[in-house]
């Protein structure tokens, strides 16, 4: 029989899996039972929605058989099964999730915690098995097939006999080694324990023959053993259980069982609603950002059940985009089983659920912020960008909902603060909420534009995320306090005295400013004496809605239209440099041109903007030397 090779990446993963030093090898059973349950979900759903299929609830179950003599453990299900092609497509290559492909080959060292990071479903069977045999008959086909592999060098597929639709997975359990005991995976009590721990909430019965003893017939003290089939799981979906009965661990196990993530959720939210629409939901806020979260491939959504039957894997309409990181399940007895995706979108009941779910997530996040600051900050580190995106998108429709969840780094507190905290510390005379944008905290810290605001003792919020300034422009104000960039034209701090001084300098040096403006005519919109600079000689600011930071960001986008902010070069008239400019204007116009260009380029450097003509700039410096 022909042996087929696994694809390259699958082979690498299998090698790792077979030699895995993973300590929780027991999770292979969780993975296989979860696949079995998914397969039954599929046929169960078909049966309920297709009149031609005869429906008998007792036909749907998972069965575990441990055979110590032959060292085999069999997991059978009466699910939808797999055709020959499906066996090949689904088991011959790595899980479609793409999570594995995402990791670069060189990151996959031996001992690398793949399971902890991704969970790899079916393949985990190779952690405990020498050989894995899958016998399956797919729904709608007359033939059954046997897929077999020892992990190392490929797999075989051949026709075989199987009466019913469904799948048997037969594991030939490894021999004990010096460090590893595999026998335990054939022990009744151990299997029972694993199933109770990870798969208690599976909706279908997980059956196994359990050894019991009874008095021998006719004897008063002699016992004999016999086997009796038992259902090992409670089958009540976790979301139907009473919150008080459940522990944190139960929720965490459910999160893992469902593959919502391979981290521990920051928060589990359990909802039981008995209103116009009745439903139960369990929602999770993950602690780690999924690897594809900020990509187009990421799909948001909650698992949607109609009275315990899965009708949609990821129902996007239940979650607003700004909470797209939330995972979980929603089960409602009021939803029709046959509801289609299109109808669902307009469904009033669904809208009511979505509203309540959104509100609840918001409330839980607010509580987290209030009561578990550190955890919230970690959460914000991961998903804060999504919240800010939420403020910006939909024309700011959700800003009221989200504004109190925002945090920014504070120049004064040297840590993340909320807008509410900022406002509560504001001196009475302070008119605006000040912010500064830049690549990093260190860089913003050194911006000359901040001098006046800092001198006044006012707090500045640092915007280091690309979305920050866009979001704030949408927010416009918070509790009636307007946001103000430290680079904007009017800071609202300048004194009348300073204004007078500046006006008289402008008047006195009219021609100097005019000439400098001509020199930089295609580069800046204006040149003027600065009201904000204290120690530094120059800086760039902007006029109008578009800031220099926003210009930078917009120009990194695909199909940018080379949008430019209206830049203003501000000169510190109290700095010695200004005297130098004045004397150059009187005595040597060529020098004035040189100085003007130098100052402009310095200002660009401070802003982190590229110098348009670096060679010209270095030549200018040489001229000075
Ligand atoms: N018992 C089964 N019955 C029917 N199909 C199965 C069974 N076990 C696995 N499959 C099929 O094989 C595929 C691959 O399974 P695997 O456990 O590797 O990944 P997955 O379950 O799709 O993804 P993930 O593990 O990330 O949830 C499944 O998607 C399913 O189509």
From TrEMBL:
Region listing for C, in residue ranges: 553-625
Listed NCBIfam families: PRK05218.1 (NF003555)
Quaternary assembly: Homodimer.
Name this polypeptide is given: Chaperone protein HtpG
Keywords annotated in UniProt: ATP-binding, Chaperone, Cytoplasm, Nucleotide-binding, Stress response
Location of the region described as A in the Swiss-Prot/TrEMBL record: 1-341
Pfam families the record matches: HATPase_c_3 (PF13589), HSP90 (PF00183)
Described purpose of this protein according to its UniProt entry: Molecular chaperone. Has ATPase activity.
Keyword ATP-binding: yes
Record lineage: Bacteria, Bacillati, Bacillota, Tissierellia, Tissierellales
Protein family (similarity comment): Belongs to the heat shock protein 90 family.
CDD domains per record: HATPase_Hsp90-like
Locations listed in the record: Cytoplasm
Domain of life from the UniProt record: Bacteria
InterPro entries registered for this protein in UniProt: Heat_shock_protein_90_CS, Hsp90_fam, Hsp90_N
